[in-house]
Amino acid sequence: MAVVTTPAPDSDAPPPTVREAVKADLLAVYRIEKASFPQPWPFAAFQRYVGEPAFLVAEVGAGVAGYIVADSVPNHGRPLGHVKDLAVHPDQRGQGVGSTLLQRALGVMRAQNAAEVKLEVRESNETARRLYESFGFEHRRTVPRYYDDGENALVMIADL
Whole-number mean pLDDT of the chain? Predict the structure, then answer.
């Protein structure tokens, strides 16, 4: 998962506008992805999610400030939400963009009747872990060597 932040307490920045991602957003999304992760998703991975209700972008001013890719899959009769990717442009971190995106995506998955939402996060990504914990995510298990560089992933789950 991406480096994400919570709002700065004394920030005067306007709140981001969140909307579904469209094809025209993909280059900006991909650039944020590359700036945020040592192992970025390929461009084509984002193309697959265009049109999905929980592929959202946040705009600050006229530009894309961050994005989230999430979906719901069948799980024993009730959908399970999955946050697949979340990243905020380095210049926009600390302004609440990640929190706003996560809140909106959880709302989409709740509307799809997901009972729980899961995600994977790098064990070393303290900033992202704090954000997820603030939304009720709890560490359920560790996947050893999940990432190509050998780092473990923490699987975190939240009830909706």
Answer: 92
